[in-house]
Amino acid sequence: ALAATSYGFEPIKMGEGITIRHLAGGPPGCPFATVVVNGARQAAHDLGCKLEVIWSDWSVEDMVIDFKEAVAARPDGIVVYGYAGEVAAGPIIDEAVSKGITVTSINTNFPTYEKKC
Predict the structure, then answer these.
(1) Domain extent listing, the chain
(2) SS (H, E, C) the chain
(3) Contact by Cβ (8 Å): 80, 69
(4) Band of residue 1 on the pLDDT scale cut at 50, 70, 90
(5) Model's pTM, two decimal places?
(6) Computed from CA positions of residues 110, 27, 56, 97, in that sequence, does the dihedral angle turn out positive or negative?
(7) Which ranges carry the Periplasmic binding protein domain (predicted)?
C-alpha cells in the first residue's frame, strides 16, 4: 500500500505499533537460524513493526523458558519453533492466546493448536 506525501509516495508501515518476539532457536551466527532471523528482520523493517530476537542455542529447555518469558512480556505476536512439542508448549500457547497474543510456529507444527492461533 502507498500513501501520498508532499514528496511523492511512501509505503504505509502496516506494522507500526506492533511488537513481535521471535524465538530464534539456534545460537547467534547459526547458519540456519540466522537466515530465518534475517528474513524476520527484513519483514519487520518493511512493515514497520518492532522485532525482538531471542536465541536459545537449540536447547528445548531454553525454548520453553523463553516462550514463557515471551508470553509474560505480552508482545503482539510470538514466533516459535515447536521442538518442545505440544505437551510442553500447549499450555503456553493457551496462555498466550488467552492474553490476545498471536502465536506462529515455524519449521514444526502444533496440529492441536494451529486453529487457536
Answers:
(1) 15-106
(2) CEEEECCEEEECCCCCCCEEEEECCCCCCCHHHHHHHHHHHHHHHHHCCEEEEECCCCCHHHHHHHHHHHHHHCCCEEEEECCCHHHHHHHHHHHHHHCCCEEEEECCCCCCCCCCC
(3) no
(4) low
(5) 0.86
(6) negative
(7) 31-113
Into which CATH architecture does domain 15-106 fall?
3-Layer(aba) Sandwich (3.40)
What pLDDT, on the 0 to 100 scale, is given for residue 117? Answer: 59
Q: Pick from 45, 67, 42, 44: which is nearest to 54 by CA?
A: 67
Q: Please tell me the distance from the alpha carbon of residue 37 to that of residue 13, in angstroms, as a whole number.
A: 20
**Res 91 pLDDT > 60:** yes
**Length, in residues, of the chain:** 117
Can you read off the three cell numbers belonging to residue 52? Answer: 525482538
